[in-house]
Amino acid sequence: MRIIVVDNYEEMSKKAALMVASQVTLKPDSVLGLATGDTPLGMYEELVKLYNKQEVDFKEVRTFNLDEYYGLDPENPQSYYSYMTRNLFNKVDISKNNINMPDGMAKDVNASCVLYESKIKTLGGIDMQVLGIGGNGHIGFNEPNVNFEAQTHLVNLDEQTIEANSRFFKSIEEVPVKAISMGIKTIMNSKKIILLANGLNKAEVIEKAVNGKINPSIPASILQLHNDVTIIIDKEAASLL
Questions:
Q1: pTM above 0.85?
Q2: Residue tagged active-site, from 10, 11, 76, 136
């Protein structure tokens, strides 16, 4: 586990973008695992800047997103499909055929999850997975006390997660209570992992994930067992290390 401490969110975003861009430069048909939320927004902005300067292109890149709300139409502005389209896909030259998202409207959720896993395996697995971390230690939507052996699956969102995500909705009642998420096993099968975190509110969970016992109560702690994890955090998030 490699830990990079930077001064601020902007520097974190730039370093993460350069790592992703380097991966794509070295392997143009890379399979990228992508995250959503506030944390990776700056990274996507930096990737778009690099693309506009012709320093990276996405023509052959294939992507798989970590998660999607269950029961939210892809066209809903709060869906992660909309988020990715807004912040990255519509701004670079990625082929729509190479974009993969969990199907939040699937009638047969289990079959949809199995298909998602199958697509990842068919392409040889995820080359680089980008992660954020929730205040409760979740990665993807793998909430505390998750089964470490789980693959892509339907999850019930933790109350803390629903409350945290309510800032994106008009009211907490509008926040979906379920989501489809890559499982811990899926994430751990990625060849490389980058985890991003910033702010004092992430300091305690970063300390537990990095220095604590590997425990399902802090799902991110399992990353201690991965052989190629880079954690990029600002000074505030690193303040308890």
A1: yes
A2: 136
